[in-house]
Amino acid sequence: MDAFSDLIRGVRAHGSLFGSSTLSPPWALHFVDGAPLTLCTVLTGAGWIVPEHGPPEPLRAREAIVVRGPATFTFVDEVGTRAEPIACGEHCATPEQGGTRHRRGWNDPGGDTGDGPGGDTSDGRGATTLIVGAYPVRGEISRRLLDALPVVLRVDAGGTADPVLDHLAAEVAVDTPGQQVVLDRLLDWMMVCTLREWFDRPGGEPPAWWAAQRDPVVGDALRLLHAEPAAPWTVAALAEHTGVSRSTLAKRFADLVGEPPLTYLTRWRMTLAADLLVEQRAATIADIARTVGYSDPFGFSAAFKRVRGANPSEFRRTATTDA
To answer: By the number of CB atoms within 10 A of the CB, which of 107, 201, 216, 244 ranks highest?
Structure first.
């Protein structure tokens, strides 16, 4: 398990969070849910993503934009459009308003006829097919991924996500059994491709853990820590597994990740523990401690408070109240 796989494992599309809309200008879809992450791409046509607190971003065919919540955003045919915004959330279907539709797995069988919402318009502009996937990211693990992202990120067409878009286009064109499962998984694939390309973009500034994964020594150490976070790791043990001296590993890890190996491990264990405290409410503090590598619940509690600012019981009580 690598660091990115661990952080993104809680980011999953689920059923009604998928939307496909075929739009004829003018349009203005206001996405009001404020989802933690929303992936937007257009199969055909173009438009603009207008964040609640940010400049408009053009979205052209086969490009992708990811918007980070909780702020809302609008998808419009052009900046300053004359269209009245239509509020779109998890359930949005307003075909009576000129063909703006947003629901899971929607397919417009008349899209190529020139009649209705999918056809050409009188002003000569063709229809735009928008694909949207909203992700209800939860938990402390995925929060570390969110913290590494800007409010809006974009990835140009022509990258590794292009084959996914081909599959998406084919799938939304028909209504078949199991379609929603296929669409969800394709969106997950699209999200992973989009984030990887954004992190690897020329001149980018990816988070330290992303760049460190490519290092032959530190990358191996990170994979070990993520694969077996409860193991009794020492710098010496990590160095032996990665084939370098303790001093080499310690310096290289700190230089690339920004902190020593065991400090990173402690923070990662506390992140795992934070989610376990919420998800496994019947588990005792001692149970959680053992799961993340502590035989002594008191030592675990002290480490948790040092890293998270509250002891495990307080954290669980607050998180349960806020949920």
So the answer is: 244
